[in-house]
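Lab notebook, bench 4. The sequencing result for the construct came back, and we need a structural model before the next group meeting so we can plan mutations. Quick request posted to the team channel:

Model the 3D structure of this chain.
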Amino acid sequence: QRPFDDNVRWVAPEVLKSLRYSEKSDVWSFGMLLQELFTGGDMPFGQLNADNAVDHITSSNNLLERSPKLK
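Done. Here's the predicted structure in token form:
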């Protein structure tokens, strides 16, 4: 079990892969927070369960689709 399973959608890909935090991973988490705020509270990668979200975040180049609420 990862120490951040409940918050996996806000954790940067490099942290999910290596458990190494940096200022860049903080920026990622802040970006996920902004995405959540601008979409009216939609959870990032909300359509995926935690394990599938980890797989998607760590293996994808196109990480987030643009929310219809932001168009």
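Helices lie at 13-18, 23-38, 50-59.
Will bring this to the meeting.
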